[in-house]
Amino acid sequence: MLLPDERFSTIDKKIHILNNNLAGKNVIIVDDSIVRGDTTRVIVEKMRNLGAKKIHLFITFPRIIGPCFYGIDMATYGELIGSTRTAEEIAQAVGADSVNYQSLERFVSATGMKKHELCFGCVTGDYPTPLAQRLANWMQKRFEDGHVEEGRIYEIDAPPLI
Asked: pLDDT tens, 13-29?
C-alpha cells in the first residue's frame, strides 16, 4: 500500500488538464465513482490552481460506504471517503463546491437490470452472502469503536465467522 505522499505523487503524475483556460469559469466534472477521494482531490486542486471559479462533481455511481469482497480492490472502511462523510462533507474534503451522486434507483435503471440481480454491498451495507455480511458487520463495528484497520478486511485475522 502506498503512503499518502507517494499516492499523491503518483496521482499527480497521471492527471493532466489539457485546457488551462479555466480562469473564472464554473466547471462540472463527471466521474464514475469516488472511493478514497485522492484522485478527485488532485483534479479539483489542479483546476482551482488554473483559476476555476466553482467546481461541481457529478458521480454516476452512488456513494460508496463499505468495502467489496467480490473481486474489486476496494479500501477498508477507514480509507473510504464515503464511509463516514455525507456528500457535503466529501465536497469539503476534496475542495469542490458540491458532490452530486446518482441515486441507487437511477443507477439500477441505467443498467437495464433488476436491483436483485446486482450487488450493492459497498453502497447499502447489505451484502448478498452471509459470510460477507458477517465480515462487514464485524469490521464496521470495530472501525466505529476506534480500531485501526491494518489491512483489507479479507486479509486480517477475523474471528471464526463461518
From this structure: 777 777 778 999 999 99
Query: How would you write 126-158 as a 3-class SS string?
Result: CCCCHHHHHHHHHHHHHHHCCCCCCCCCCCCCC
Ordered structural domains, the chain, with CATH: 4-144 (3.40.50.2020)
Q: For residues 126 and 137, what is the distance between their CA atoms, to the nearest angstrom?
A: 10
120-140 pLDDT, tens digit per residue, is 999 999 999 998 899 889 889
pTM: 0.86
CA distance 75 to 130: 20
CA distance 157 to 139: 11
Report residue 137: phi and psi, to 5°: -60, -45
